[in-house]
């Protein structure tokens, strides 16, 4: 573990208090003074191998029904898909990551460029800072102006949304000219996080209210702990457009928040106690009420290549997200803010090709039939 993060936090492991801005821009105006440093820690730690789950992953037990006789040509394979009437070049997207930090802006610019050039969806990182900071609003205005055809999805946490008036949420979506809103559920992360706000009372009611009051599709996601089968049923009653499972198997937020505490502290230990928490994609694969839910199922959490994406589509996923792999392909040196956008584009090409190879290897020319025929088995 890089000592930089732990050292900086020495003596600061107590929960910090939040305060009200004297010069508010948008209500509810609760300033989060640790936002920037926390988001920077997240970027650095997500690229640290020990925050990634690599063992006992259900996705590694999923296999595709390959054939020696595809009876099509590779050039016949198309992976284009749609989101709310908008054509996408692929069924995979950039999962919500960063925003509001100095480190974040060039990273988001690169992601927005990729989204624009390749017509894939990009979830932006939590826009919580826009609730009180004009500079955060300006940052997104700049990016939007530069990349007018990028397909951006807004992002706010459920615990913030519970106390945020719908008007403010609408403003944030409009400012970004977002094509949808992602609500992230992160109860476990908020508990481990030193500045966390684990307040989730009336969460489902809030989701339902927003679905009715907003003009854009609402997507609900986890951040790497997944949803139980009971949750998946309950979410159906809210009318959400899509549920992004974001399960265990990739970036682990209990470990990330734990590693922000001083070395050998009890708080660090508590984070690791919960590092195997939650559900992985097995929960979805074995979900018996699948056919009866009306939302689109999206999958993320531990998706690392085009074959993983194909596996998820075969289990019924409409869109598939990756977070950490995009960052890993882009960032050469986080400290020196050295990025390689060409590498990011090459990662897109690699992923796109792998997905096509997987479909071809199973004898499918498009995603619809591949998904419908459930071209997978578990071993
Ligand atoms: C650096 C970083 C920052 C993240 N910030 C957010 C966020 O602000 N909002 C959110 O919904 N998810 C956030 N996530 C979670 C991801 O969207 C995703 O759900 C999770 O990391 C699992 O995907 P992965 O295994 O592909 O990384 C973040 C992930 C990373 C790596």
Outline of the structure:
With 379 residues, this protein is of the alpha/beta class.
Total strands: the figure is 16
Low-confidence stretches: 6-28
**Sheet with the most strands: spatial strand order:** 6-13-12-11-10-9-8-7
Strand content: 5-15%
Judged by helices, strands and strand pairing, the structural class is alpha/beta
Specify Rg, calculated over alpha carbons. 20 Å
Mean pLDDT: 91
Distance between the termini: 35 Å
Helix content: 25-40%
Bound molecules: flavin mononucleotide
Judging from the principal axes of the Cα atoms, what is the shape?
Answer: globular
Biggest beta sheet summary: 8 strands, parallel
- Put simply, the count of helices is 16
Describe this structure in words.
The chain has helices spanning 3-8, 35-46, 104-118, 134-146, 158-161, 166-176, 187-192, 203-213, 229-236, 253-258, 266-273, 282-285, 306-314, 324-330, 341-362, 367-372, and strands at 19-20, 30-31, 62-64, 81-83, 86-88, 92-94, 121-123, 151-157, 180-184, 218-221, 242-244, 296-300, 319-322, 331-333, 338-339, 376-378. The radius of gyration is 20 Å and the shape is globular. An eight-stranded parallel sheet has the order 6-13-12-11-10-9-8-7. Helix 13 (306-314) packs across helix 15 (341-362) and helix 14 (324-330) crosses helix 15 (341-362). Residues 6-28 have low confidence and may be disordered. It has 379 residues and is an alpha/beta fold. Flavin mononucleotide is lined by residues 42-43, 46, 95-98, 125-126, 155, 182, 184, 221, 223-224, 246, 250-251, 300-303, 322-324, 327.
Key phrases:
alpha/beta, binds flavin mononucleotide, eight-stranded parallel sheet, 16 helices
